[in-house]
Amino acid sequence: MSSPAADSVDKPTVYLLYGDDDFGIEQDLARFTEPFADPVTADMNRTVLDGTSLDFGDLAGAAQSMPFLADRRLVIVDNAGRLVKAREGRDRLLALFDDLPATTGLVLIERLDLSRRDSLAKYEANSSLLAWTKEHKSRGWSKAYPRPQGPAFVTWLIARCRELGGEIEGAAAQVLGELVADDAYLGNQELHKLLDYVDYGRPIEVGDVERLTPRYGQGDIFGLVDSVGARDARAALAHLHRLLQDEDPRPVFGMIIRQFRLLLQAREALDAGQRPEQTMSVHAFVAGKAATQARNFRLPQLEAVYHQLLDLDIASKTGRADLLTGIHQLIVQLAR
């Protein structure tokens, strides 16, 4: 994979990473920052900014500064889509692209809601940032990061296991994918544990997965959503507390986001007169459960809930909200 290495010769100056696969984005960002590992100069040649509250002057100043005792300077802007919502912001940013010195690598991250099947195609057809990288191929680089789900997640698990230096049987990857609910962070965590268990000496088998990998509260996540649909706040909070007993809030929040994404897909299929089990790329049991739960909601309700979840995700990552408090407040609100 191409990355803004320390040598700035023939390197792009604008990098666009877009999608909803946070794990994939983080993995590539780690590769991007490898050339800046020198503790003496790293902090002076790497700047991380948040597009939700970014002053354009600060961005321009960081991007146009020369590197210190290095050949390359890296500027990372998370939530970069906020910068181009207004035409003025878009024009200023595109003008900045044209003025970037060759010694700067400006990395823009657009975190998208790809719950609808056509979301990625619409973004790629309308994004001015993506268009710029494609029109300026010597200076622009872009990559899509759609979150792998269903069969694609199983394929990802197999490939990730190889990256970690081991092997996993296809059937074992299928079982693991269901147990971790297509969560890349949990999947990666479990692969590390399973590879340690087999000592990297043989492929991971179904029995290994069943022996070592918990279900990560699959029953409780179904119960949580059932309780929300029934407007039973007490029961919803009881399921949430069980989920959080042995888990960090972040993976639990990821499960909640995933479940409401599935409800959106199921509701859209139902409204279109289709069977969710045939249109959704997840196990038939999961699709059937999502279809049952989706009948408790109207499509606009699910869309509003999903956007609330995404807003909480961004707020917690940028320090504007406490994730655990936000989850509790949201569940109480939804179950009223």
Describe this structure in words.
- Strands 2-3-4-1-5 form a 5-stranded parallel sheet, with helices on both faces.
- Residues 1-9 have low confidence and may be disordered.
- The longest helix is centred in the C-terminal third of the chain and has 23 residues, at 249-271.
- The relative contact order is 0.10.
- Helix 8 (170-179) runs parallel beside helix 10 (206-212) and helix 13 (249-271) packs across helix 15 (284-294).
- The chain folds into 3 domains: 14-145, P-loop containing nucleotide triphosphate hydrolases (Rossmann fold); 151-212, Helicase, Ruva Protein, domain 3; 218-334, Zinc Finger, Delta Prime, domain 3, CATH 1.20.272.10.
- It has 17 helices and 5 strands.
- Helix content is 57%, strand content 9%.
- The protein is of the alpha/beta class and 336 residues long.
Please outline the helices and strands.
Layout: E1 14-19, H1 22-33, H2 42-45, E2 46-50, H3 56-64, E3 73-78, H4 87-99, E4 104-111, H5 119-126, H6 128-135, E5 140-145, H7 151-163, H8 170-179, H9 184-198, H10 206-212, H11 218-229, H12 233-245, H13 249-271, H14 276-279, H15 284-294, H16 299-317, H17 323-334
Parallel strand pairs: 1-4, 1-5, 2-3, 3-4
Helix pairs in contact: 7-8, 7-9, 8-10, 11-12, 12-17, 13-15, 13-16, 16-17
Q: Which bin fits the share of residues in helices? A: 55-70%
Task: Please list the strands of the largest sheet in the order they lie side by side.
Answer: 2-3-4-1-5
**H-E string:** EHHEHEHEHHEHHHHHHHHHHH
CATH topology of the largest domain: Rossmann fold
Strand content: 5-15%
Mean pLDDT: 85
Largest sheet report = 5 strands, parallel
Please mark out the parts with pLDDT under 50 across 5 or more consecutive residues, or reply none: 1-9
Helix/strand structural class = alpha/beta
Radius of gyration: 22 Å
Instruction: Note the gap between the termini.
Output: 48 Å
**Tally of contiguous helical segments:** 17
CATH superfamily of the largest domain: P-loop containing nucleotide triphosphate hydrolases
Which CATH architecture of the largest domain?
3-Layer(aba) Sandwich
CATH class of the largest domain: Alpha Beta
- Name the overall outline: globular
Question: How many separate structural domains?
Answer: 3
